[in-house]
Amino acid sequence: MFYRRSRLLNSVTASLTSTEFAALPSLEAPYTPPPVLLKPSVDSRQRPTILFGPAPEGTSVIPVPPEGLGSGQPLYKISSPTCDYVSVRLTMLKAGFKRIGASPRNDELPANLIWGKSAPIKAPPTGSPKERSYLNTKLAHPYQKFNHFPSSHANLGCKAGLALNLSRCHDKTKHFNPTTLVYPSQKDKINELIAGSPRHHRFIWKPARGSCGRGIMICDGGSIEAVQRMEQGIAQKIKEAEAANVSPLMYRHYVVQKYIDDPLLIDNKKFDLRLYVVVTSFGQSIVAYRHQKGFARFAASDYNEASIGEKYSHLTNFSIGRRIFEPSLELLAAQSDAAAVEA
């Protein structure tokens, strides 16, 4: 993808006149770091908080140049390479944060924010279970924040953990949460559910720790052979991962759900909504904030109920849908190269 974009960019710059090219912004211009925006607290006894993103209309903020903060400039650290996202780095940069490396020599540096996969867990000390639960995840300084609560991935981020937690309150969630089982720990129940269902019922299998539409399969109900085919598919995915020297852990556990056979469509396409919420407390009362904006993801092809193997019709993952347009991007790049050569 980077190579294709580079070729397109080269084609564009090649068509510019010398005057137009000189008017392009220089990449060597001196960089001025953005100010740190401090939002005063409604309580005069409390310190101001750092504001991320543009200030809402009517909000008073105090812009402070980072150099004016000296050693007080906010710091952040990304503790896991798999969480090193451009969106995170850009957001922190715009907020005036300075990044410090994740090497062991920086472990004692007091980063205001640590961004990673899970909160650091230390060896459990003596004391009551409540004390151990607190001390195990206590960071070095009271002002430090981690982007995940302890065990939140195992209980919410992992589909298997989320399914088991929702099953504990099934009476309250059954009107919006389809029957969900975990493979292989609930294999007998899965066999019973799928084999005992009509043939027109379908079931979707998703890796418990998967993402980006990887490893998803759909099967019909009405026979035990359908489950056996899914097991063969899982075994094949594990074999392929091992052959590619990639960890097969993602395919070890699956969640199995009854597939919604009459989905809501827009322009004959499946879609889902992404709404973002940050939870700041799981104490006596849950404190959560919902982002004002969200977005919808659409399947790349029209919904086709008859074809369960057509992933572009059934999956709304962007990483899946964009592949259908890659041949067009290759053609566009080739046409741009040809036009540049002719010029």
In words, what does this structure look like?
There is one protein chain. Helix 5 (129-136) links the parallel strand 6 and strand 7. The longest helix has 20 residues, at 224-243. This protein has a 4-stranded parallel beta sheet, with helices on one face. The model is unreliable at 1-13 and 131-136 (pLDDT under 50). Helix 9 crosses helix 10 (224-243). It has helices at residues 2-14, 18-22, 66-69, 86-94, 129-136, 152-157, 159-167, 170-173, 187-195, 224-243, 311-314, 318-321, 326-342; strands at residues 36-39, 49-50, 62-64, 75-78, 98-99, 113-115, 145-146, 180-183, 202-207, 217-220, 254-258, 271-282, 286-298. Helices cover 33% and strands 19% of the residues. With 343 residues, the chain is α/β, with parallel strands linked by helices.
> What does the overall shape look like?
elongated
**What is the helix/strand order?**
HHEEEHEHEEHEHHHEHEEHEEEHHH
Number of strands: 13
Share of helix, binned? 25-40%
Q: What structural class is derived from the secondary structure elements?
A: alpha/beta
Strand content: 15-25%
Low-confidence stretches: 1-13, 131-136
Major sheet: size, sense and barrel closure?
A: 4 strands, parallel
Strand order of the largest sheet: 5-4-6-7
Cα separation of the termini: 25 Å
On the 0-100 scale, what is the average pLDDT? 77
What Rg, in angstroms, do the CA atoms define? Answer: 25 Å
Number of distinct helices = 13
